[in-house]
Amino acid sequence: MVVSKVFIDTFGCTFNQADSQIMAGNLVENDFEIVNSIDDADVAIINTCYVKQPTENKVTNRIQKLKDQFPELKVIVSGCMVEIDPKKLNKIAPDTSWIGPHQLNKTTNVVKATLNGEISRECGFSKDTKVGIPKIRFDELIHIIQICEGCLGACSYCCTRFARGTLNSYSISEIKKEAKGALLDGCVEIQLTAQDTAAFGKDTNEKLSNLIKEVSGLVNDPEINNDFRIRVGMMHPNNIGDDLDSLIEAFKHPNVYKFIHIPIQSGSDSVLVDMRRGHTVKEYIKIVNRFKNEIPNLTIATDIIVGYPTEKEEDFKKTAEILRELKPGLIHLSKYRHREGAPSSVLDEIPHEVMKKRSKYLTDIKSEITEYENKELVGSIQKVLVVEKGSKGGFIAKTDSYVPVVIEDVEIGKFVDVKIYEATSTYLKGVKL
């Protein structure tokens, strides 16, 4: 029997990576082979991200380039673009099959039809679970679990919610079962991911804090004989409030990375109202300070949108002040761009030169903060988990605060003690003790 080979090219977030692993699992169960090179493939699935304009450009360029360079290759498009912008997708690739992000269980059907010369398009929403189903792990030591899909938000700049839909949480018992299976397979890191992990359970009367406690408690399971860490994905501040105390206690568990990703997007209350974020700057600061006071070694990650259409100079200055006050250890900056279907897209964008200037100003602040925070760790002894090989040599490990450390002569998947001897704005350098 001739086995068809499939290459999956993934853009975007951790959740999208997990979607690709589900598609791979569906295909392998049906006797397809997943390959690591486009040159070896009969079919290529482009799993798209559409959250930002630069990513959209990369995705559309990739689709067009593949069709031009590999005319015999069968190309299938999956991911958020399928639901958000089918009109553009149909324009750049009119003869291409599609797999919507809620139709992953039909991946094999779409691939088979495409190989037979048909155009197969599986789109639309469903409440099918993404937990406890076959997946092909692309990193044998890190396991991603999607704890819920969709969100409760109405952010004016966002188009992702049009692809992911309303909140659909999966059960704690099933998530814990999948996590245990991954740990028994030798995984050392469990990543709990969602569009908004803080929204988890608000449709099922379960809580994120309880989920974290249940998964971290697996360290006491007699069948689990390897240490591990849990990374919790992005939390919208608007959904944390009623679970704040329990969440802080959950994050104190030694097996949970002391790392929280809480986007603020702007330091101006008036802009936050225009963005439809549903929280104030004061409410955000209260949450972050509670976490920092209870967990001193915590790394805070946040997101900032530079140049929202209603952002005035005084609004921008407030954002800069908030960053200097909170000193997040990780800051994701994005220049505002209109997104397909997003309510803010009817507004006039601010001049490009103004946006570029503001972005540069915040980038400088970001570098100052992160370099200062990292230099504070020079000379310290850190227990780190080695997670991958470095692209420029050595190995990449993560501290308990999820700060990357470059080290030599270690084994992937192991915990080691290192002494930090150098710091940059993005990573540390350490030597194994």
TrEMBL record:
Organism classification: unclassified sequences, metagenomes, ecological metagenomes
The gene coding this protein: miaB_10
The enzyme's E.C. designation: 2.8.4.5
UniProt-listed InterPro entries: Elp3/MiaA/NifB-like_rSAM, Methylthiotransferase, Methylthiotransferase_CS, Methylthiotransferase_N, Methylthiotransferase_N_sf, MiaB-like_arc_euk, rSAM, rSAM_horseshoe
Family: Belongs to the methylthiotransferase family. CDKAL1 subfamily.
EC top class named in words: transferase
Name of this chain's protein: tRNA (N(6)-L-threonylcarbamoyladenosine(37)-C(2))-methylthiotransferase
UniProt catalytic activity: N(6)-L-threonylcarbamoyladenosine(37) in tRNA + (sulfur carrier)-SH + AH2 + 2 S-adenosyl-L-methionine = 2-methylsulfanyl-N(6)-L-threonylcarbamoyladenosine(37) in tRNA + (sulfur carrier)-H + 5'-deoxyadenosine + L-methionine + A + S-adenosyl-L-homocysteine + 2 H(+)
Radical SAM core domain mapped to chain residues: 137-373
Function: Catalyzes the methylthiolation of N6-threonylcarbamoyladenosine (t(6)A), leading to the formation of 2-methylthio-N6-threonylcarbamoyladenosine (ms(2)t(6)A) at position 37 in tRNAs that read codons beginning with adenine.
Keyword tags: 4Fe-4S, Iron, Iron-sulfur, Metal-binding, S-adenosyl-L-methionine, Transferase, tRNA processing
The TRAM domain, residue ranges: 375-433
Pfam families documented for this protein: Radical_SAM, TRAM, UPF0004
GO MF annotation: an example: tRNA (N(6)-L-threonylcarbamoyladenosine(37)-C(2))-methylthiotransferase activity
Domain MTTase N-terminal: 4-116
Cofactor(s) listed in the protein's UniProt record: [4Fe-4S] cluster
